[in-house]
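Could you help me review a protein record that somebody else here produced? This is what I was given.
***
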Amino acid sequence: MLKNGRPTQQTQQPPQSRSTPRERWTRWLGQTREVRLQRIRRVGRRLHLNPAAWISGLVAVGVVLFICYLHASRTVAVDSDGASNALQAWAMLHGNPLLRGWHLSDVSFYTTELPEYMLIEVLRGLTPEVVHIGAALTYTLLVLLTALLAKGSARGRAGLLRALLAAGIMLAPQQSGASVLLLSPDHVGSTVPVLALWLILDRAPRRWYVPVAAWMLLAWALIADSIVLITGVVPLAAVAVARGYQMVVQRRQPARSALFELSLLIAAIAATETAYHVLALIAGRGGFIVWPISHQIAPFGQLPSNFMLTIQGILLLFGANFLGQPVGLAAALAALHLIGIVLAGWAVCVAVRRFAGQDIAVQLMAVGLLFSLAAYVFGTVPFNLNSTREFTAVLPLGAALAGRLLAGRLAKARLGPALSAVLVCYLVSLGLLVAQPPVPAQDQALAGWLSTHRLDYGLAGYWDANIVTVDTGGMVAVRDIKDVNGQLQPDTWEVQRGWYRPTSHVANFVVIGSPPPSGLLRTLRANFGRPVKIYNVDDHIVLVWRKNLLASLR
């Protein structure tokens, strides 16, 4: 070193040897329990004071989960449901933002999954992989939002335990549940904006902009999916009324103290009206039309079947659908997921029992979960296990409630090691699902054959139409038709009217299943005449004509 322009001598320190991991572990074990706890608390405080570390950790966990869920999604074949949404996003991306001329299903996904698909298609193009990537992104975001909602305002170790418990319950979907949770756009994605809103209400102060955010988020979600009425709008309105009643009537507080709750009620009502008018405005300008939904209460004789499907559906959603499986590791891991169901049920009981004393987020989650179950049980929607998608919100809501209300109790009961062992088993279950080989999208062999034989525009039933179009990246277009009393007509479900104009397109082949349904060949001949060629391709029959079949459609 230099001092006053002249070098000075510096005492040489002997280099310190770095301790080995074994030595550090030995020192750790030799410390008292109090010293170890103090060090853990110091680490927890350091992490809490560094938001960048939490954000980086959250991003890292999200990336790992996305990769796992992408592989899990690939174990299920993409079908025409997901392909239809991919085609709609492709149309929006190529100059048709209002989806003019489109007849959609009873759910539009216009403001949720379709924008997500557009971003993916910018990078990947039109391919079945878009469906897998979108499903993995959606479920990853759902798990992270559930963990944050479970954490609430808790900090340090308490907040981490809450988040881990909630995320652990959702961590490992079953192979049998992947088609509901990890495939085509469905009601599971519609829960994302609802959880985001509950998170805002949980963290934000009682300010004027919070009801405005509630109105905008609910309206945005309702445009995409009317099930948000059940999972978001009704719970918000019911909780707002209950909290306002408690404040003004039971506690005898001034009426102005409940203005925030009143504004939330108005926001819920305004969101419903806004979504209705936006959809009407889009349809009035020639945009997409959504298939109307029939709201009916189930007859008494259907209730036993509905109850059984509800129980089976809960097992499926929570990864505990072990009934009917061969005895083995997979069934044992699935049965272990019953713990998640027990914890979620316990948390709901705690929330309902002490409902008046709970914070607004817990009340919203409990009401949303119970109302989702009630709407399913007493509705006419249940028909098979696939209809479980109608109450998928039960999974994230139940997991968030369990993490928020039970993590502290379980820690006090010294059940941390047992829950850690369960979490390891859930990780094993996820690993087994990820290790499953990917399966190709439906009808890929048929799509390749049509492309090779230069048959680029034809007709088929719903399940063989849009999926072939996406399989080929739009190089082969197969359009959906239906049989109405022996007359073949363009379908009105997930189609675009312009596809059937004989002045714009020439369709010269029809794809049917093999063996064909009774009477279908006779109907085809009655409408189109005798085909010139018939091919057997995989498990399909391809019939070719030398004329434009669109001119014969009614």
Residues 51-189+297-434 form one domain. Strands lie at 2-3, 6-7, 102-103, 457-460, 477-484, 487-490, 495-496, 509-513, 533-537, 540-544.
